[in-house]
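User: Could you go from structure to sequence for me? I need the amino acid at each position, not a summary. Structure tokens:
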């Protein structure tokens, strides 16, 4: 009984170790493909509505207005605010990139934005 339990424990440990290696390899590949991106309020749109998606953007600092265009008017429904004390990074275009769709929303910088982008072909290659 003890010998069987020991084999089972080793199999579980081996499975966990191989999963950790896969996750680590994925993260290393992902981080190597990230490129820095910067915008400010005078730079124009980060991404306009109905535009083709070329990259997934991860906002690390700053404020972004999220909205949509209806009858040539722009409406903002949400504001993404990233600060140094937040531990969450907000992605833009991830859903559209995975599903090969155009942007459903527009993203306008409200102040200075610091972000990282990963090009669509690199993003899909890693996934």
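Assistant: Here is the amino acid at each position, in order:
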């Amino acid at each position: 009984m003890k010998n069987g339990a020991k084999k089972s424990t080793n199999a579980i440990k081996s499975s966990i170790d191989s999963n950790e290696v896969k996750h680590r390899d994925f993260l290393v590949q992902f981080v190597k493909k990230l490129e820095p991106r910067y915008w400010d309020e005078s730079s124009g749109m980060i991404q306009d509505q109905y535009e083709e998606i070329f990259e997934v953007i991860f906002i690390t600092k700053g404020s972004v207005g999220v909205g949509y265009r209806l009858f040539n008017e722009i409406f903002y429904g949400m504001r993404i605010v990233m600060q140094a004390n937040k531990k969450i990074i907000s992605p833009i275009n991830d859903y559209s990139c995975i599903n090969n769709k155009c942007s459903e929303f527009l993203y306008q910088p409200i102040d200075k934005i610091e972000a990282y982008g990963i090009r669509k072909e690199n993003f899909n290659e890693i996934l």
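One structural detail worth keeping in mind: The radius of gyration is 20 Å.
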